[in-house]
Amino acid sequence: MFPSLPSSSPLFLLCPLLFFFLLNHSPPAAADSLYKFCGRSGNYTPNSTYASNLNLLLTSLDSNTSNSGGFSKSIFGQDPNQIYGEALCRGDTNASVCRSCLDTAIQNAPILCPYAKCVVIWYDYCLLYYSNRHFLTTIDTSNEILMYNVNNITDPSRFHKLVDVLMDRIADWAAYNSTEMFATGEMMNSTNPPSPTTYGLAQCTRDLSTSECRQCLSSMLNPTDPRLEGRQGARVLGGGCNYRYEIYSFYEGKPTLRLQSPLEAAQPAAPQAPRLITPPGKEGRGNKIVISSTIELSLDWTSPEEIVSVESLLLDISTLRAATDNFSEENKLGEGGFGAVYKGLLPDGREIAVKRLSTSSSQGFGELRNELVLVDKLQHRNLVRLLGVCLEEQEKLLVYEYVPNRSLDTILFDRIKREQLNWGQRYKIIGGIARGLLYLHEESQLKIVHRDLKASNVLLDAELNPKISDFGLARLFGGDQTQATTSRVVGTFGYMAPEYVMRGHYSIKSDIYSFGVLVLEIVSGRKNSGNSESGSAQDLLSYIWERWTEGTILEKLDPSLGNHCPKSEVLRCFHIGLLCVQENPSNRPNMSQVVVMLNSYSFSLQAPSRPAFCIGKSSMGSYASGKAIPMSPNELSISELEPR
């Protein structure tokens, strides 16, 4: 049991409340609550209308929570006897554990807080919260409880920095990636002397929006709080969200995220999870899956999971013809190298985007294979979602979620439309692209190099959230693989890293280069395809570098943004962009470091070196003829990152 404050304590008379308790390694018994709060909003009387409404509420929460994925909320009655309630089970519990915990909470609530109108009871596996005040769909911080492990950690300064990074990543995942708003993670540390592996958990109630969930967790996430200095673990419990971290595994099952310390020197990321796709045999031939009577699709990697996944995505041609008005010009959203994209409307009311791969394109099957094998397995709010595929009547059709604001380039590089993107929206777009790439490189079940990240392959939804699209050129890395070489260089000049253009070498650092170009384009509002300022056809990166070295970099800020942008954020984005486009791939940060850079201001970034040479259309002749383009010998390495 935890020590409790006496009921006469003035702390019990205040709201919001913050309590501190000691937390041992062993979780409490099922019947013991972590904490109870009997609110100060009055009492009800037995056999009253409020008592009847409370009974109805508890019955509803008890029956619905374990059957609805671990969360439910209810409202019963009318003012002045209206009552609001919610029940939340920890995201790693099964239905049986959830029901058992809630039964205990419902049974004990009237005993622990007799006749109280407002009650909050926390157990290790569930929360029960009811009140006569409306707290649902809000970020409720009125009853936060801080608990900490009584044992101390060695090297507390480093430990808390690692915890800060770990919990920030877990919070991002819970808010933005998980439909259950729940995530766990572990950070493996390879320092000398070694630091212990750190484990974390974050969860929100599912009536919060993604931004509200992240805001709720951000308000709680403060592992560097001096009151936690040197502690091995802590948890904060709140009505809207909660988190916990320890140096031992305290949750069920495998972690959502497996991370390597970003405080180490930049090294290739370790495998994040067992790969779902296995390489082909020595014969080098993939099996064939017959998807229709007219087309055989040969996959480079095949497994039972892939076959089931592909078959579950099949759509018939008649449905898509009806949805797009037979691929009418009025519904055409755009056209690229592999074919046209059409807007459609399914019978159930869902809006879709249909990519119609060109029948004359020799690359159509390669792109189709990648989209099917990769995109269906990649689920992230900053990646476009694949809904289906159709292979009938010689058609090759891919069906995606419809993203109403189309691609970033259609707004960013339009003199009039770019004014729609204020600084806050641009900063959000940069952060979203970074999180999407981080997922591809380090957090997904597959390690993916996109190879064609550019403004036209970033789609914007109704709220201008970015979604990375077009995985036709993407490549899967397995095991400990960190780079590969190809004799067939494909992509978009201006975004392609020099080592890829000149030697065919690609890696996650190639994507980092493309991201850096994209960041500089978003901040400056200019495309990296040459500009004619000062009478020269100088590329954007070189022009930005000149302004950076002259100390006049703010002159490159998009004029449409006016003079009301936070200069610190603008300068930081220019700085991060330049770090990402350095010549030597090993000097570029990885995406976990970039995400820390974008979200933390407590450390200084290293000065960037001159950007890599960008290969524009005017250089194609020299490259095609085999002439090498010299690279700078600069070998500066990026410094260790210090999280906030």
From TrEMBL:
Residues 1-31 form the signal peptide. Residues 32-135, 141-250 form the Gnk2-homologous domain. One of its GO terms (biological process) is response to oxidative stress. It comes from the Eukaryota. Keywords: ATP-binding, Glycoprotein, Kinase, Membrane, Nucleotide-binding, Phosphoprotein, Repeat, Serine/threonine-protein kinase, Signal, Transferase, Transmembrane, Transmembrane helix. ATP binds at K355. It is a single-pass membrane protein. GO terms for molecular function: ATP binding; protein serine/threonine kinase activity. Residues 327-604 form the Protein kinase domain. Pfam families: PK_Tyr_Ser-Thr (PF07714), Stress-antifung (PF01657). PROSITE patterns: GNK2, PROTEIN_KINASE_ATP, PROTEIN_KINASE_DOM, PROTEIN_KINASE_ST. One of its GO terms (cellular component) is plasma membrane. It is found in: Membrane. This is Receptor-like protein kinase At4g00960. The gene is LOC120106271.
